[in-house]
Amino acid sequence: MLSKSKYMEDILAAFPGKTLRMFLDLLLHIENAGVTINELKDYLQNLKDIELKKSKEIKRIIKEKDRLWAEKAPKCPDCGEALKIRSLISCKKANLRGWKTHLFCDINSNSVCLYEEFSLTSVEEILRELGIDL
């Protein structure tokens, strides 16, 4: 078994340069505030649990939106498949006409369909119009 000092050396080796200084400053502040290591662990575990719960809720919402989109999406006029949707709001430099949404057909099981259309309506507005507003 490693001695305590060797064990601490190994742990502190994970904090190179300024990171070690920041870690030590953090420990000092925690100690000065009268917070125990167990209180800190409990607090951090609570934060982790909250983030995990938020992440699961976001995944559930996305899955539900995907399911509703598959049911209600506009169909491709060329092949009849449900169109895919993509927001173009973050593409401002390449998007000179101000399009907000790109609706497009994708490769389906029967053929390659290259249908696409652009819209000045945002993805959120399109989803709301289709009743997909979670």
Per-chain topology:
Layout: H1 4-12, H2 18-32, H3 37-72, E1 84-87, E2 101-104, E3 116-119, H4 123-129
Antiparallel strand pairs: 1-2, 2-3
The quaternary state of the protein chains shown equals single chain
Q: What is the typical, i.e. mean, pLDDT?
A: 87
Spatial extent as radius of gyration? 26 Å
Structural class: mainly alpha
The end-to-end span amounts to: 55 Å
N-to-C series of helices and strands: HHHEEEH
Which residues sit in consecutive blocks of at least 5 with pLDDT less than 50? none
The helix count comes to: 4
Total beta-strand segments: 3
Question: What number of structural domains do the residues give?
Answer: 2
Fraction in helix:
40-55%
Beta-strand share of residues: 5-15%
Q: What gross morphology would you assign?
A: elongated
* Strand line-up of the largest beta sheet: 1-2-3
Largest sheet: 3 strands, antiparallel
